Amino acid sequence: MDPTLKKMSSKKKKRLEKYIEKKIKKEERVMLIEKLSKTSFSSELMKSSKNLGRGKETMRERLRKAYNEKRLGLPQSDLSVPLFVDEGEEDEEEEKVLVDHVMIEDEITKDHSLSKLPVFDELNNDQNTINQSVIVGSALKRGPDGEFTIPIKKKKKKKIKKKQAKLVQKSMLEEDSFDSSDSQYDTDKETENSEAAISEKSKESKGQSFKQWATEQMGIKLKDNQNKSTIYESQSKPTNLQQEKDVEKKVLIQDGIDITLGNISDNEESNINKSDETKAVKKAFYVPIERNKEIQEARMELPICAEEQIIMETISNNPVVIICGETGSGKTTQIPQFLYEAGYSSKDNDNPGIIGITQPRRVAAVSMSKRVAQELSLSEQEVSYQIRYDATISPKTVIKFMTDGVLLRELANDFLLSKYSAIIIDEAHERSLNTDILIGAVSRVLKLRAELSEDDGGKIKPLKIIIMSATLRVSDFTQNKNLFDMVPPIINVSARQFPVSIHFNRRTPNIDYVSEAFKKVCKIHTRLPHGGILVFLTGQNEISILCKKLRRKFPYLTQYKSKQLLEEEKIVGDVESLTAKEADVEIGDLDIGDKEVGEELFDTDSEDSEENDEITVDERSGPLYVLPLYSLLSTHAQLRVFEAPPEGTRLCVVATNVAETSLTIPGIKYVVDCGKVKERRYDVITGVQSYVVDWTSKASADQRAGRAGRTGPGHCYRLFSSAVFNDQFQQFTIPEVYRMPIEGIVLQMKAMNIDTVYNFPFPTPPDRNHLRKAERLLQYMNALDENGGITELGRVMATFPVAPRFSKMLIIGQQHGCLPYIIAIVSALSVADPFIKDYHLDISMNSDDDVEEEDNEDFDVRYNELSEIQKEAISQKEHRKLIRKRFYDVQKKHAGLDPTSDILKLLNVVGAYVYEGGTDEFCERNFVRPKAMEEIHKLRRQITNIVQVNCPGVDVCLDSKMKPPSIVQLKAIRQIITAGFIDQIAIRKGLIDKSSKIFSSARNVEYCTMWADDNVFIHPTSILYHHKPPDFVVYQELHRTSKVWMKGITVIESSWLSKLGKSLCTFSKPVDLQVKSKKNKDTEKIAYVIPSFGPKNWELPPIKIIAQKVNNRWVYGSI
């Protein structure tokens, strides 16, 4: 027996036998096909069943039949059909004339210098000028008087059969298929006449078009009779226009690029032609660039660089251009360089200014600016970026990358965007709220700049807009007449994409798609060749679960085994490279199986699916290098996915949809897509927000699959069936304008003097009720007046880069010295919750050193006891209990500042973070995310700078040692929070409905909000959850899961509402109770009014007012 077979396991032996059996079947199948091919016959002479019973054949069918008989070597059945016809002398002369004409045109077009040709528009009537020799050819003869004469063209006899035979032969040679027209119902005579008429018409149009060209070149006005000139113009001009349009279409469609032009009416076309005639010829301008050789070679591999000329010509001739190119085509880095080379940022060019590029994410803006600066060999001051917390702009800046929010703020100060020559809006397919508003705003800037460039004597130049998308969803931009009057051209650039095989599941898992993803990754790792794996899930919790399971299943091996495995893989790779060229059988096929076997292994409904559920780890399967990737992860942890995995391991990245378009992870060959996405939904009426896990869109699924084809051919395994994909997946993602509150955008638009937001050119207009509610909220905060106009308070609120609620808190936060605390609170509320959730606690997040630093002696004693426990499972369970205990102790410590507010707990942790210097050790001990705390600190610095610039009378600075607030300041802070969230008040249901139960703690206590009828509850993470339920609270947001929960709760007093929310109150008639004093009993008295708050008219405590007697009438004071 072969010693190699002895070492094989029984499983591998079966697979080898199966492989050999399939190879034998394939060889037999090839031999059978060869035998059948020898006995095959042509079916071209067989008559179609649909033509059976029809007696007469058309001339086309008879010619085709005769041609097929001739080609197959059979005698011609119908000798009356003239298959070959000799060409006459007349045709030879005609072809010679046409060749002469073509040669004349070619020689003229070869000479690009227009100065060498005679200018016939300036000819004089002198004899010397007339006698000058003309070099354009001899198509027109001169008469005795020196004038040109039109040759009289003799009509030729129609050679119907000859033309028809040539036409049929040409059509049969080009494609072997019938015409889609109903030619079987035509007679021979009708066919012959129609084809002859078409041939004669095309010949006349060619001759007339050439004569028109020659006449226009020489500038001679032909003096002929009126009938001839009328016929000449009516025949030649439309033909030339049609030819020009055909040429344009042919020029604009090339390999790898597709340009779609919008429909232009006749009036618009005539206006364009008139403007083109009067427009001066634009001089060529080019900025020389010296690039590194390696960079230039890398650029040349990008698909978009091959289309630079067409892209720049389209941009030069159109104010708005839409470029569609998938991730990897190079549009983000190369389009700014194209514009820079064309002189759009040069002062010597006709259109100087900065080239601006917007990005929806800060990381992309920073990284792209550095990359473009490196490729252009420019400094960071010339290719700069500006994001929320950082900027490198300078007076030398020529290219500027920024987030879309930054450009929106510049629009509020300079609506013309006068310092920009071109604006590039990238990632438009994501349809973020800022991007949609920005596209609508620049569409108006575009028209205004174009009008002012004509009226202002050229001081203001036109603006160029380039909208770039990774998908073909551009109908919202092209078909929306409110955005652009003329349909902008669309350029589709193919991406540098390798083929990706899509594999669907036969069945779709109902709920547990995380376990299904785990099984799929195990199969890929144990059975398929080396290559990175990218798994798409919906959130941090699912990612943590899958990462733990994969790390437990495929742990790191010892150093010796890892090196041994590496050497084995290298040996196997060498053998594969040799045998792949020299033999039919490859070692990879022996270990893995061919394509058919691989597909069977991944079918979830295969016969051995139950056996595959229990994944057995192969001895040769190396460890997995598992990395998570989501937005809340620290920057350092996110960058680890770009590093090469350790030797002997396979990279496996488990990510959210952040890896769809923003990041390109190198080395990914396999993608596992759960098909789900977690989206934020917003109810306009109730204001309830919820995070819903639902199917993603087809466009997003295609983007995920494309991740596997960046560096080579790849595979995408979708954990759902093709039927679910076709029936339940939307084509594109819902725009963010439908899923987010828009009061901040409405305030920005009002600050830009856009009073009627209903008429704003949104790419996809939001519901009017959504806009109406946003305006009503701004009126409650006194940012807008009763007519919808912006107030002075609203203009100041618009200067802060935060939500309008937080801007209101900053403006009124100067009372009692509370502004530094309000800045810290607003910074914390603007960033995501910095605290780690209790279900994300992990044993590995606390090392032994961290535990030894804990001051709690009892904790140390308990931890030392754990080291004596032998069973690992029990030790981990007890360790987890200790970690959770310490977590809740930290939460209780931060809530000690004021146990009546969750927001003041954030203030306490921000103050402690600043006091200890903002170290990572503090974040680990206090269970907060370092990335969130860093962003809070940056935003705190930015808001402080804005207050110092815009409020010169306010004394505020960034205090590195912020002291805790006093009792008076704590009460004032709670009132300021109430003023910012004045429309988000909740009342305990027991105050309205006396029949409701009374609870000792806030757990399961029902509350009523101002706008919705559903009951809401205090969230379990709130510090009020275990305390006595308060009567009135203000909440930051509502979240719907099994119930509607209130988050970010602060206890308030009911008497505050009548003072802070007067616009939401109605007051009863005054009730006189007593005189103010005996001295003034006839002139003053005390009265009370009872306020009712909100749309449900909650009754508030009475308010005392003073009434004075004026002219025998009692006048009540203001409330």
From TrEMBL:
Pfam families xrefs: DEAD, HA2_C, Helicase_C, OB_NTP_bind, WHD_HA2
GO MF annotations in UniProt: ATP binding; hydrolase activity; RNA binding; RNA helicase activity
Compositional bias (Basic and acidic residues): 186-206
Enzyme Commission number(s): 3.6.4.13
SUPFAM superfamilies noted in UniProt: P-loop containing nucleoside triphosphate hydrolases (SSF52540)
Entry superkingdom: Eukaryota
Domain Helicase ATP-binding as annotated: residue spans: 312-490
Known catalytic reactions: ATP + H2O = ADP + phosphate + H(+)
Main location: nucleus
Domain Helicase C-terminal: 561-753
Enzyme class: hydrolase
Positions of the UniProt region annotated as Disordered: 171-210
The family this protein is said to belong to: Belongs to the DEAD box helicase family. DEAH subfamily.
Designated name of the protein: RNA helicase
